[in-house]
Amino acid sequence: MSDTGNTPLNRDTFQNSYSGKPPWDIGKPQPTIQALADTLTGSVLDAGCGTGENALFFASRGHAVTGFDFLEEPIVLARRKAEERGLSAEFLVKDALQLGGWTERFDNVIDCGLFHVFTDEARPQYVQGLKTVLRPGGRLFLLCFSDEVPGTRGPRRVSKKELHDSFGEGWKIESIEPSHFEVRPDAVLAMFSGEAPKAWFMLATRLPARQADSGASQSEK
Q1: Rounded distance between C-alpha atoms, residue 208 and residue 205, angstroms
Q2: Is the pLDDT of residue 110 over 90?
Q3: Is 167 part of any domain?
Q4: What CATH number does the domain containing 51 carry?
Q5: Which terminus of the chain is more exposed, N or C, with fewer CB under 10 A?
Q6: Domain residues for 189?
């Protein structure tokens, strides 16, 4: 997270963050994600997993878990954590905008702070990639910065309308609820005036192709 306002974050921003301690690397799962413990069944893909705390939490509960990030450094740290904790999880260096050619399929995808880094132009490619890797009927759990966060510091803000627009085709949005990100205490004071940054937490189901086509046809009438 940097002083970028509504400007999407780039590779240099994240590399610079990992040269120290990133504000979002809190040494445990995000509380909103951890609260899913009793609702998830099946395999889990953690998109933009960072150093792996969310992925390792679900691995500790017996899920088959894969996490990816586009930087090597957090993946190295995630693999080290898995080894130290005696947990089985696969961590890969992977570009979230290149998921279309991936053959593996998952029952659940967790996006904890990834969607909000993309430009308007990149969002459709990312969402299409999610549809590729998520099995029909699978669920997406997405936590992103909210447009209700005051000021301009931190990641790009996202409105509920933008979520509806991005996931309007091929998805059933089950809910979008207000939530928050837990960040390091120094970041709360320095970047967010002492208040935990607000977020939207979206649950969406990936529709089977036939049902998605039917829904699109009806919306065009």
Answers
A1: 9
A2: yes
A3: yes
A4: 3.40.50.150
A5: C
A6: 11-18+40-220
Q: Which residues pair with 110 in a beta bridge?
A: 46, 141
Q: How confident is the model over 148-187, as pLDDT tens digits?
A: 887 777 778 999 999 999 999 999 999 999 999 998 777 6
Q: For the segment 21-47, what is each residue's pLDDT rounded down to a tens digit?
A: 766 788 999 999 999 999 999 999 999
- Tokens 């936590």 correspond to what residue? 143
Q: Measure the CA–CA gap between 74 and 68, rounded to whole angstroms.
A: 9
| Crossing angle for the helix pair 11-18 and 72-85, to the nearest 10 degrees | 40
In order, the DSSP letters of 136-169 are EEEEEEEEEEBTTS-SS-BSPPB-HHHHHHHTSS
Surface-to-core class of residue 72, CB atoms within 10 Å of its CB (0-12 exposed, 13-18 middle, 19+ buried): exposed
Give me the amino acid identity at 158: V
Q: Is the pLDDT of residue 11 over 70?
A: no
Q: Helix 53-60 crosses helix 72-85 at what angle (to 10 degrees)? A: 30
Q: Read off the pTM.
A: 0.86
Output phi, psi for 52, to 5 deg: 95, 10
Look at residue 91 and tell me whether its pLDDT is greater than 80: yes
